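Slide 14.
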Amino acid sequence: MTVRSDTFERSCEHWSDAGREEMEAFYELARIDYRYLAEAYDWASAFQHLADRKSGIRLIDVACGSGKFPQALLACPGVAGLSKIPNFKLDYDLLDPSPFSVREAKQALAAPFYSGAEFCCTLQDWDEDAGLYDIAWATHALYCVPAEELEQGLARMCNSLSHDGFGFIAQGMRDGHYVGFYDQYLASMADRDGTPYSDGGQVETALKNLGMQVHSRVLNYTTVVPADRPELLESYLQRCAFDDALSLEDMLQREPLAGYLASCHDPESGEYQFPQRVGMMVFSHTEAGLTLDDAKVSGVD
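Slide 15: predicted structure.
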């Protein structure tokens, strides 16, 4: 795997069989990201509401990764229970530039999610002529879309939505760990010319510029790495930067990254505590289409 290729190219190199070990170490911690998203709304009610209005539900997962979000949803009794309803199904299409990711995500699906079409491309290059979708989501998925290309990509996602369908995007805010860490990583590199991650605020602005109705809120939580797991800490941070050549020792010495990590370190417990702030955006062509936002679960934030 290369080190100094830019953000998108490095991410593609890591979404591969060669990056599986690092990916699995990362998700030992990052699975919680998707669990919180699954618990933030009453997804089962939103799915049922759509099913009550039409004979079938079409869904597309943009930049699907390895399928951790549908796995988290299937762990929710309400969603898993929908598979017991006669003829209830969600046709689940997958989009990702990595064939590895499409394959992994497909294997993660189970009833009531049924795998459908596969698009191996970026969101920006997607030719959204597969018909209209009732749901389009992208969860921790758009970081590598450059800020200047967000509207282009999101326009394709919005155009794919039916008139009464809804979209959902979860994207880290700039003052949260994922985006903030990557900013510090780029500032610590000798060339300092990498492409920054796009953040939740930029995504929300782009959606509004496209004329969508948007309801947003921020999810706050902390990712904790135990003091006795330095190898886990290194793998987690390497995946956050898509750079497995930068060791933990290097990170703790390079400024300003070293200062950022020091600010996340609890000297008493020895833990690293990374503050997460994730923008959650529900969007639709009309206010009436914001089905999911009516299905909030209180007390999550």
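Speaker note: The radius of gyration is 19 Å.
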